[in-house]
Amino acid sequence: MNKKLILNKIVALLTEDLKILTEAARTAHAAATHEECVPDNKYDTTGLEASYVAQGQANRAQDIRHALDTYKAMVLRFFDEETPIRLTALVSLEDENGNSRKIFLGSEAGGLKLIDGDEEYIVITPESPLGKALLGKVCDDEVCVGQGEGQKTFTIVDVS
Questions:
Q1: How many angstroms separate the Cα of 105 from the Cα of each of 2, 91, 109, 111, 126?
Q2: Long-range contacts of 49-56 (CB under 8 A, 24+ apart)
Q3: Buried b (16+ CB within 10 A) or exposed e, 8-45
Q4: 3 and 77 Cβ atoms separated by less than 8 Å
């Protein structure tokens, strides 16, 4: 999968998430303001709890809207084997057991998974431990993430 297709898939997934969360926020707001949520006594917090849910969903929708705007305006950079890794890099990693993974270094929506046939691409941000470790590295460098027995070492196999 090329980076333009990855970017388009990210925008499509965020658009769908925004649609779902916006509708959920509207539904939660309607529930919070419904006449059945008017408190019967000072201990009835049904309306208050529903308003917290509505606010949380509205906040999450706003975060997704911001991420969507960021990705729509994103300019893709292309890398070769000697270009230091930074935003928009598509990185292929291999661990010490020979397992590979493909990472897209994006500014938002860390953890988003994109599937293309048998390939899985994961969006990570520079703030994540792996993102921090990758910044400035080039092809054939090794990066270590974690500590103690949980530490993993990856070799950068390809950057585009």
A1: 14, 8, 10, 11, 7
A2: 53/28, 54/25, 54/28, 54/29
A3: ebbeebbeebbeebbebbeebbebbeeeebeeeeeeee
A4: no
Beta bridge partners of residue 103, listed in sequence order = 91, 122
| HEC secondary structure over 79-92 | CCCCCCCCCCCEEE
pLDDT tens readout for residues 116-139: 888 999 999 999 999 999 999 999
- Give the C-alpha separation, 119 to 124, whole Å: 16
- Amino acid letter, residue 40: D
DSSP conformation class of 136: T
Q: pTM of whole model > 0.85?
A: no
Contact status, residue 126 vs residue 89, Cβ threshold 8 Å: no
Residue 77, H or E segment: none
